[in-house]
Amino acid sequence: NAGVTQTPKFRVLKTGQSMTLLCAQDMNHEYMYWYRQDPGMGLRLIHYSVGEGTTAKGEVPDGYNVSRLKKQNFLLGLESAAPSQTSVYFCASSYGLGTEAFFGQGTRLTVV
Amino acid sequence: AQSVTQPDIHITVSEGASLELRCNYSYGATPYLFWYVQSPGQGLQLLLKYFSGDTLVQGIKGFEAEFKRSQSSFNLRKPSVHWSDAAEYFCAVSGYSTLTFGKGTMLLVSP
């Protein structure tokens, strides 16, 4: 009963390096989201997808790219990491608008 | 655009006392509203949700919330707090294809 799985759970990057965070869901959900969580800021939406092959910008998209080539996977890429991208990243998925979102356990990313 | 305001950053409640966490939302139509809880180092778990109908909704762990359209509020309540309720609580609104969260309220429970 996996639900939403994020890979990796922890990562340390040097400034300028690139990486991809993987989110996989096994609930056949249409909607998927990437959030970042910073102290005192709550969860801020980076990018989201309303179905396979679609992506859209959220509140804080700069410095990130996403892809949704398969319905079950939503990838978040950092092309050139910056210290300001140090955060905890959460992926979530839901059946559709207004339905419950299920969250992964988070990825703690540190950029030095 | 939709938004959520949680006015209280921290709240401390004595164990056994009642709890109310405030949430105000902004959205142009009938909102879908949620309360989530996050324990340290964990993801978010849904406590309850409001879609339509009865304005008082029941959730897990003894929580309830009341939707008040006139006040644009969706406050979370619990009659008697347990030490295990200490966590961060997030109110969220769903609309325009996205799920928007407030900044959270950290609940501390004193003995």
Describe the protein's architecture and organization.
The complex is a heterodimer of chains A (112) and B (111). With 112 residues, chain A is mainly β. Chain A contains no helices and eleven strands. In chain A, the strands form two sheets. In chain A, strands 2, 4, 5, 6, 9, 10 and 11 form a seven-stranded mixed sheet that branches. A four-stranded antiparallel sheet of chain A has the order 1-3-8-7, with no helix packed on it. Chain A starts with a strand and ends with a strand. The model of chain A has no long low-confidence stretch (mean pLDDT 95). Chain B has 111 residues and is mostly beta strands. Chain B has no helices and twelve strands. Chain B has strands at residues 3-5, 10-14, 19-21, 24-26, 32-38, 44-50, 56-58, 64-68, 73-78, 87-95, 98-101, 105-110. In chain B, strand 5 (32-38) and strand 6 form a beta hairpin. Chain A binds chain B through residues 4, 31, 33, 35, 40-45, 48, 50, 56, 58, 90, 92, 94, 97-101, 103-106, and chain B through 6, 9, 32, 34, 36, 42-46, 49, 51, 90, 94-95, 97-104.
In terms of topology, how is this protein built?
The complex is a heterodimer of chains A (112) and B (111).
Chain A: E1 4-7, E2 10-13, E3 19-25, E4 31-38, E5 42-49, E6 56-57, E7 64-67, E8 73-78, E9 87-94, E10 102-103, E11 107-111
Chain B: E1 3-5, E2 10-14, E3 19-21, E4 24-26, E5 32-38, E6 44-50, E7 56-58, E8 64-68, E9 73-78, E10 87-95, E11 98-101, E12 105-110
Parallel strand pairs in B: 2-12
Antiparallel strand pairs in B: 1-4, 3-9, 5-6, 5-10, 7-8, 8-9, 10-11, 10-12
